[in-house]
Amino acid sequence: MPVPLYLVDSFTDRPFAGNPAGVCLPDAARDANWMQAVAAEMNHAETAFLRPRPDGDWDLRWFTPTVEVDLCGHATLASAHALWETGRADRKQPIRFHTRSGVLTCTTAGGRIEMDFPAEPATPVAAPAEEAFALGATPTFVGRNRMDMLAVISSAEEVRQLAPDIGLVAKIKARGVIVTAKSDRPGWDFVSRFFAPQSGVAEDPVTGSAHCCLGPYWRDVLGKNELVGYQASKRGGTVSVRCAGDRVILGGAAVLTVVGELRG
C-alpha cells in the first residue's frame, strides 16, 4: 500500500525558503533501517516518521540522511503542519508527539505554530585552537550541551560570511556546531548558522533544536525572555523563542509544498 509522504518548508511563510522536511506516515510499524533508507532517499536535513497512538497522540522519530537524531525542531513543526493541513488533526487541539526527547507539544497561535521543547543551555568550555581553525573564526565564547557545540563570534556579518572547513568541522565531537552573534539588523535579536557534517548535513538551513540552546544563551546576554533569531543560511528562516524555565517555546510558520506517496 502506498505510504503518504509530504514535503514541508518550515520556519518560513513562503515556498522554497526555510528548511524543508519530509513527513512520512507509514501504514504499519517499520524498523529503523527502513526509515533510514527513506530519509536517505529524501536527502533532506531531516525526515520525520509519524505513527498514531491509541490515546490520540503521535509517535515521532527523526532521521537525517545518515543517522537518527534525538531532537529536531523544523521536522516537528513540519509534522504538525502536515497533520493539520491534511485533516488528520484538529487545529483547535494541541498535538502531542512522543519522541526520544520526551513529549513535545505543538499548538497554533497567531497564524504560526508554537512548539514546547526542552531548553538545552550550553556549559562553557575551553575552545581548542583546532575548532577555531575549522570554523575560520575565533569564538568569544564556546559552550556545549548534550548535542552541540555553541560558538559565539564577534559580529553578525562574520556569521553571514563564515566559510568553515566542513571536513574539519566533521571532526568536532558533537551532533553539530552552532555559530551565532548579536544581530545588526532590526527585527532580530541574534543571527546564527548550523553546521552538522557529523550528522550528514553540511549546513542546516534553519535549525529549531539549535534555538533550544540559542534562546537560553541570548536570554542571559540580552536580559529578555522573548527573542527572535534569524538563521542566515542560503534559504534563511526566522525562529521566535520564548524562554520559560527549563522549556523553550519555539515559533514559526510552515508551507506544504509537495503531497505524494511512497511506493517502497
Give me the secondary-structure topology.
Elements: E1 3-10, E2 19-24, H1 32-42, E3 46-52, E4 58-63, E5 68-69, H2 73-85, E6 95-99, E7 102-109, E8 112-118, E9 123-124, H3 129-135, E10 141-144, E11 149-152, H4 156-161, H5 166-169, E12 177-182, E13 190-196, E14 201-204, H6 211-222, E15 226-231, E16 237-244, E17 247-252, E18 254-262
Parallel strand pairs: 2-3, 4-6, 11-12, 13-15
Antiparallel strand pairs: 1-2, 1-18, 3-4, 4-5, 6-7, 7-8, 8-17, 9-10, 10-11, 12-13, 13-14, 15-16, 16-17
In short:
With 264 residues, the chain is α+β, with helices and mostly antiparallel strands. The protein has helices at 32-42, 73-85, 129-135, 156-161, 166-169, 211-222; strands spanning 3-10, 19-24, 46-52, 58-63, 68-69, 95-99, 102-109, 112-118, 123-124, 141-144, 149-152, 177-182, 190-196, 201-204, 226-231, 237-244, 247-252, 254-262.
Characterise the protein shown here.
20% of the residues lie in helices and 40% in strands. The protein has an 18-stranded mixed β-sheet that branches. The protein has helices spanning 32-42, 73-85, 129-135, 156-161, 166-169, 211-222, and strands at residues 3-10, 19-24, 46-52, 58-63, 68-69, 95-99, 102-109, 112-118, 123-124, 141-144, 149-152, 177-182, 190-196, 201-204, 226-231, 237-244, 247-252, 254-262. It has 2 domains: 3-118 and 251-262, Diaminopimelate Epimerase, Chain A, domain 1 (Roll), CATH 3.10.310; 123-237, Diaminopimelate Epimerase, Chain A, domain 1 (Roll). 49% of the residues are buried. By secondary structure, it is α+β, with helices and mostly antiparallel strands. It starts with a strand and ends with a strand. A hairpin with a 4-residue loop joins strand 13 and strand 14. The protein is globular, with a radius of gyration of 18 Å. The protein is built from 6 helices and 18 strands.
